[in-house]
Design brief:
By secondary structure, this protein is mostly helical. The chain is built from eleven helices and two strands. A two-stranded antiparallel sheet has the order 1-2. It starts with a helix and ends in a 14-residue tail after the last helix.
């Protein structure tokens, strides 16, 4: 039973990170029907910015948790700036173009950001300091769930609650929902659609940066390629739960996290990726729109 719980919380931790990144995919797609394939690279850049900030703060003798908070804050600012710039340069000029054009632009930006970090940093894995301290009250259950996993779960939960409140209870959230329902009508009632779309990219980038900092501190290393794999898994989570559905992105992330954890724990780590995509294929055969997705009817 203890081994099962250990795998359960390990999968919950993985799934929480996938869900954070998947929310960025699903928010952008829900509003402008675009897959931002550079989203995983924003996650990677957030981790690298946090690494640089952590290195500078260590020189000045700051404590681990203070470094984590400061590194996360600066990584969020950088990621938000990157997300805003990507939307402004790579996606907005192609908004009225055929679907293939922004798709190619998104893939191109993903490759560009990967190589940009590769040339600016190094192709090797870099050690990331363990900034999350060990909590004494966690000692009795440390063999099941560690302090780092607890911090990740709590941070993810708080972030998702704040995002839900933003979308459901604020004027900005109302504008985002109106833009998602009908972009043209949203313009007619006075909503600044361009600003709403830019804000959506910024929010998604912030979520990705939070995930990048948490995972880097948890795993203890970063590399220019980590964004690609995490982005693929998070995109799979968004599709699995129903692309465009925020609860679906969370559910998809948790399902993938648990499937990977239990596959690695009871079978072999070689099968965790296979099981994830087999599960995706099976669910999409049964429900093509995803678990919580809705089939959109188009007038012809």
């Amino acid at each position: 039973m203890e081994y099962f719980l250990e795998l359960f919380f390990s999968g919950l931790t993985r799934g929480s990170i996938y869900a954070l990144i998947a929310l960025g995919y699903t928010m952008v797609y829900g509003i402008i029907q675009l897959i931002n394939f550079a989203h995983g690279e924003i996650y990677m850049i957030g981790a690298f910015v946090a690494l640089i900030v952590a290195g500078v703060c260590t020189i000045y003798g700051l404590s681990g948790f203070a470094i984590l908070i400061l590194a996360a804050a600066i990584a969020i600012l950088y990621a938000a700036a990157y997300g805003y710039t990507l939307e402004k340069i790579a996606y907005r000029p192609l908004r009225g173009s055929p679907r293939l054009s922004p798709l190619i632009s998104a893939i191109g930006m993903s490759i560009f950001l990967q190589n940009y970090v590769l040339l600016a940093q190094t192709p090797d894995y870099l050690p990331f300091p363990r900034l999350i301290p060990s909590f004494a009250f966690m000692d009795p259950v440390a063999h099941i769930i560690g302090s780092a996993e607890l911090v990740i779960l709590v941070t993810t939960l708080v972030t998702m609650v704040l995002l839900t409140l933003l979308i459901k209870k604020t004027r900005v959230g109302k504008a985002m929902r109106a833009t998602q329902q009908d972009l043209s009508m949203a313009r007619l009632v006075g909503i600044n659609v361009d600003r709403v779309i830019s804000l959506t990219f910024v929010i998604g980038s912030v979520l990705a940066a939070i995930g990048g900092v948490l995972v880097a501190s948890y795993i203890g290393q970063v590399n220019f390629y980590i964004g690609f794999l995490a982005g693929v898994k998070a995109f799979t989570a968004a599709v699995l739960g129903g692309i465009g559905s925020i609860p679906g992105a969370v559910l998809g992330g948790l399902i993938i996290g648990w499937s990977e954890s239990f596959a690695a724990g009871y079978f072999s780590s070689d099968y965790e990726d296979i099981l994830t995509f087999v599960l995706l294929v099976v669910i999409l055969i049964v429900r093509p729109a995803g678990i919580l997705g809705k089939v959109r009817k188009q007038k012809v």
